[in-house]
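Task: sequence design from structure.
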């Protein structure tokens, strides 16, 4: 399967982010909990040197809870602070305030030693497209936030959102790109809906997902569609088509329609809480 994906403005966005990073203490990096490595940008660790780092496993509500825990440990072992969140419901938000203070304790201490009082922590939200940056900012900042306007002495036009007296958020999220040269990364991102459907072959993608689900989450398809999971991925796709009456004129099975239905269900969490990339098991992914 060949996923062609040419994001525009990539260099420009990276340069913009490099500029923005000069203004901040902390990077809040959102990853998709269902594909925590594939949804990261390979440059961010290098770009983010010398910054405090917080990884949010976003869309944790759609991912396998056992894997959420495993990924949390994985990233913690690499030196990141980590919080599992559901930005839509707001679950996990309360914890973040405390974790931010903890992640920036060196900066707070440095300020204290220099006699600087109450300088807020400045944070930036970063992540690949569709990972939930806007949803997170809206939920986290909530109604209580106020835009603090342009700050004198700082690059013109930058808006800061004051979350409370301790934290300010740069209001333009840093948009990054995943490692789209890697086919499997592309496939996983397409499955979770981070790459537009119309640039890939949805039937091939559905067959990949069905095989994956049967291997890693046996019984999930059976439960959702009342079908047997025996047989090839194609046979499973056909069984789902029949179970859901996805037919073209003349009783022919409609593979495209069936594939679309499977992805709607998968992305909406209706097949269960599923993680497509398991921590510490590269060979299984
Ligand atoms: N279930 C679930 N859905 C989420 C969560 N966070 C975001 N979403 C959904 O994911 C989709 C993308 O969210 P956005 O906030 O627009 O993502 P973004 O990163 O700002 O996207 P771009 O601006 O395109 O880069 C929306 O449909 C959100 O409702 C979450 O924690 N759980
Ligand atoms: Mg957005």
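Answer:
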């Amino acid at each position: 399967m060949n996923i062609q994906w040419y994001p525009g403005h990539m260099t420009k966005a990276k340069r913009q982010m490099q500029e923005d990073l000069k203004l901040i203490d902390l990077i809040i990096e959102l990853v998709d909990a269902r594909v925590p490595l594939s949804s990261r940008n390979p440059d961010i660790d290098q770009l983010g040197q010398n910054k405090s780092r917080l990884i949010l496993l976003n869309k944790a509500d759609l991912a396998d809870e056992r894997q959420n825990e495993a990924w949390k440990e994985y990233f913690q072992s690499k030196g990141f602070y980590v919080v599992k969140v559901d930005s839509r419901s707001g679950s996990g938000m309360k914890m973040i305030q405390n974790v931010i203070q903890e992640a920036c304790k060196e900066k707070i201490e440095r300020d204290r030693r220099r006699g600087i009082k109450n300088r807020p922590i400045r944070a930036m939200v970063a992540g690949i497209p569709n990972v939930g940056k806007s949803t997170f900012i809206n939920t986290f900042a909530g109604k209580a936030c106020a835009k603090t306007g342009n700050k004198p002495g700082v690059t013109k036009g930058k808006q800061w959102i004051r979350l409370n007296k301790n934290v300010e958020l740069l209001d333009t999220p840093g948009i990054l790109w995943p490692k789209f040269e890697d086919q499997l990364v592309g496939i996983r991102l397409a499955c979770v809906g981070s790459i537009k459907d119309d640039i890939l072959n949805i039937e091939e993608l559905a067959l990949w997902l069905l095989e994956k689900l049967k291997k890693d989450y046996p019984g999930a398809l059976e439960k959702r569609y009342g079908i047997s999971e025996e047989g090839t991925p194609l046979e499973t796709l056909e069984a789902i088509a029949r179970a859901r009456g996805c037919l073209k004129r003349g009783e022919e099975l409609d593979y495209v329609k069936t594939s679309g239905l499977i992805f709607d269900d998968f992305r909406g969490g209706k097949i269960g809480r599923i993680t497509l990339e398991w921590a510490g098991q590269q060979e299984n992914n």
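The chain has two domains: 7-175, 201-284.
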